[in-house]
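From the pipeline queue, job 12 of 40. The input is one protein chain; the requested action is below.

Action: predict structure.
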Amino acid sequence: MTQYTTLVLGISFSAFLRVAPLMAGPIDPVQHPHPEQATSVHEAEHAVDHAWEVYHRAALGGTVASPALQAEIEEHLHEARTLVTRAQEAAERGDKREVDHLVGQVKIHSTKAIEGSKEPKK
């Protein structure tokens, strides 16, 4: 029963974390003053969305290897969302170097979340 409670609380918490950063809104690369940076951020947003989808399938299917791994995955996903928001702000300023750095970090966290979500139960 405690695993079920942990799973339900984890999913609820992750849903909250997923909704909060959405208030910033996505960048429209076409109308953006720095379209190259906006496109990079847009691709990073898709990477995070994909990582969330993989995680949710694993969590709802009960295939996340452990509660500790679930918490670690959620940390990566939360950090990736936070970094996307920072990358959006850097793109608005036209700071290509910062956008590239942040997008790279987003991809690292997204990849780690996906790998964790695919780790088999023991």
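Job complete. Residues 2-24+35-118 form one domain.
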